[in-house]
Amino acid sequence: MDLIGKPLNPNKRLKEGFVSNLSGTSMLEIAALTAIVPALFVIRQWSSFARVNGHFNAKEAVLKKNDNGASCTKDWRCYAVALAMDYLCVVMPILLVFTVLAEWAYTCASLVVLLLLFCIVARR
């Protein structure tokens, strides 16, 4: 019985060596990555709410929409534009930050939070 001394998986030592050198993720990096997602959603929501039917004032847009009865919600182009904006403003940055730009997580989180603060100041 020669199988007693041999492992079943010949690459087991390579896998153990790879896993033993991993240090994991710090709490600060987890906080930075989790701050990016809600900030992107808030920025996207504010950008779509600020421009309803081409009006920058939300109350004026609601009144105009109710007055003439025409709304952009039934037009397929508005859906396509909203979907494209959601993809470009939310999905793509999240995918990039979690994969390709993972080494730049702190910088990306700082930039997104600064952009969010700029949006808050600009709305006042």
Give a description of the structure.
This protein is mainly α and 124 residues long. The protein has one domain (25-123). 69% of the residues lie in helices and 0% in strands. It is built from five helices and no strands. The protein is elongated and about 70 Å long. The protein starts with 11 loop residues before the first helix and ends with a helix. The model is unreliable at 55-63 and 65-69 (pLDDT under 50).
Structure keywords:
single chain; mainly alpha
> Element order, helices and strands?
HHHHH
- Helical proportion, percent range: 55-70%
What percentage of amino acids are in beta strands? under 5%
Largest sheet: none
Number of strands: 0
The structural domain count equals 1
Roughly what is the average pLDDT, rounded to an integer?
78
Number of helix segments?
5
At a glance:
This protein is mostly helical and 124 residues long.
List the helices and strands and how they pair.
Layout: H1 12-20, H2 27-49, H3 58-68, H4 76-98, H5 105-123
